[in-house]
């Protein structure tokens, strides 16, 4: 049994979000188009588009959808279709980036 690493979980979550945005793209575009040229009035002018966008995105980012994605990923991993080492390299790069940012914005920097 394979336990997903933090990097794998993060990768799957980003994939889930990307898939949802792709599926909901026409609805998201409607909301974005509605917001053009508006500031505060967006709150009531684009309410219907905002609700539709949220409904679409929420329907595609459920735990059940995440579970399906995990099962597919684990099957792909078992069949050798996933480059596990690449995910580990990407996670290490992200961790190094976070460390660099925290050092550059740490206390004592003026």
UniProtKB/TrEMBL annotation:
Cellular component annotations (GO), alphabetically ordered: mitochondrial inner membrane
Region of interest called Disordered, as start-end residue ranges on this chain: 88-110
One protein family per Pfam: Cmc1
Compartments (UniProt record): Mitochondrion inner membrane
Main location (coarse class): mitochondrion
Biased composition (Basic and acidic residues): 88-99
Keyword Chaperone: yes
Keyword line: Chaperone, Disulfide bond, Membrane, Mitochondrion, Mitochondrion inner membrane
Cited function: Required for mitochondrial cytochrome c oxidase (COX) assembly and respiration.
Family affiliation: Belongs to the CMC family.
Protein name: COX assembly mitochondrial protein
């Amino acid at each position: 049994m394979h336990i997903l690493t933090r990097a794998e979980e993060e990768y799957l979550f980003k994939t889930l979000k990307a898939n949802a945005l792709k599926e909901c793209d026409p609805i998201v575009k409607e909301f974005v188009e509605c917001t053009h040229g508006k500031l505060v009035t967006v709150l009531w002018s684009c309410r219907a588009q905002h609700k539709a966008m949220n409904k679409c995105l929420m329907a595609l980012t459920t735990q059940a959808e995440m579970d399906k994605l995990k099962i597919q990923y684990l099957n792909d991993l078992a069949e050798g279709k996933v480059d596990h080492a690449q995910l580990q390299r990407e996670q290490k790069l992200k961790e190094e980036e976070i460390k660099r940012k925290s050092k550059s914005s740490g206390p004592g920097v003026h």
